[in-house]
Design goal:
The protein has helices at about 15-25, 40-50, 65-80, 105-130, 190-200, 215-220, 235-240, 270-280, and strands spanning about 5-10, 30-35, 55-60, 85-90, 135-140, 155-160, 180, 205-210, 225-230, 245. By secondary structure, it is α/β, with parallel strands linked by helices. A five-stranded parallel sheet has the order 3-2-1-4-5, sandwiched between helices. Strands 8-7-9-6-10 form a five-stranded mixed sheet, covered by helices on one side.
């Protein structure tokens, strides 16, 4: 698409996904304001495109500061006379234990991820009231479906007609009388649950070993037993009420996903970009 003449504000635009968004708009002809707290990378990105045109502008800002966000919009309007597209991309996480997380750390995440997006959208709407064009794009996350360090969202699943589908809690002891459909040998979460069952001397009525995840889902839907699978694989079936996720109250599984590549092999630009994104965001 052609964005000649459009003015775009990208929060968190100097790193990761925000950097890629900024570059894409610049390549499409837009004037881009890169709003970020990372001055070194922000200025480097501005310099990269200033040598080709004068359409990239870095603005150092702490988006937790409400006054600073309002001053940012005033500056943009003063410089460009308009702002056409707002990309609310800035965000962060904090993965400290619930027992250790401080109020200040909680506020940092909420103020950056939520309040900053609200204030920016509010200011954008005020300056664009009565205009014929305006776009607000809020970047959210699907991380609840993905892995964090030591976590991989896992789900025990049954068919909607299964008697467990109506239970308010589900724990390890409930497996003792059930037909358990499991993945192939060597699968990390199968091995973990088997060790857990052995440690607690719990023996399901039967094990059905199936190599294909799609086949496991269909067997469960057909009422042949229950299974445990990564939640990302069953989102569609959960949305369509083909499967029911059981309210697991047992121990956490502690699964995680790793990216492995040969340190001496050539890496394509696409793969390098992917690795850069995963390092900066995950």
């Amino acid at each position: 698409m052609n964005y000649d003449g459009k003015v775009v504000l990208v929060t968190g635009g100097a790193n990761g996904i925000g950097k890629v968004i900024s570059q894409a708009y610049l390549k499409s002809g837009a004037t881009v304001i890169i709003a970020d707290i990372d001055e070194e990378k922000g200025k480097a990105l501005q310099a990269e495109y200033t040598s080709k045109s004068d359409r990239a502008f870095f603005y150092k800002i702490d988006l937790q500061n409400v006054v600073a966000i309002r001053e940012l919009f005033q500056t943009i309007i003063s410089m460009q006379q308009s702002i056409d597209i707002l990309i609310n991309n800035a965000g962060k996480g904090n993965f400290r234990s619930l027992y250790e997380l401080t109020i200040e750390e909680w506020d940092e995440v909420i103020n950056l991820n939520l309040r900053a997006a609200f204030i920016a959208a509010q200011e954008f709407a005020r300056y664009n009231r009565g205009t014929s064009y305006g776009r607000i794009i809020n970047i959210s996350s699907t991380r609840y479906l993905m892995s964090e360090a030591n976590t991989e969202p896992m789900s025990f699943i049954v068919s909607p007609d299964h008697h467990f589908a109506r239970q308010s809690v589900f724990d390890l002891a409930d497996l003792a009388t059930e037909d358990f459909i499991v993945t192939q040998s060597g699968c990390a979460y199968r091995e973990y649950i088997e060790r857990l069952l052995e440690k607690n001397d719990i023996h399901p009525r039967s094990f059905m070993k199936v190599k294909n995840i799609e086949a496991i889902k269909q067997f469960v839907i057909s009422g042949l037993g229950l299974a445990i699978l990564p939640r990302v694989y069953i989102e569609k079936e959960l949305r369509h009420n083909q499967l029911i996720e059981l309210p697991w109250t047992g121990p956490d599984f502690g699964m995680y996903t790793q990216i492995i590549y040969h340190k001496d092999k050539w890496l394509s630009p696409i793969l390098l970009s992917f690795l850069e994104l995963t390092r900066s965001k995950f």
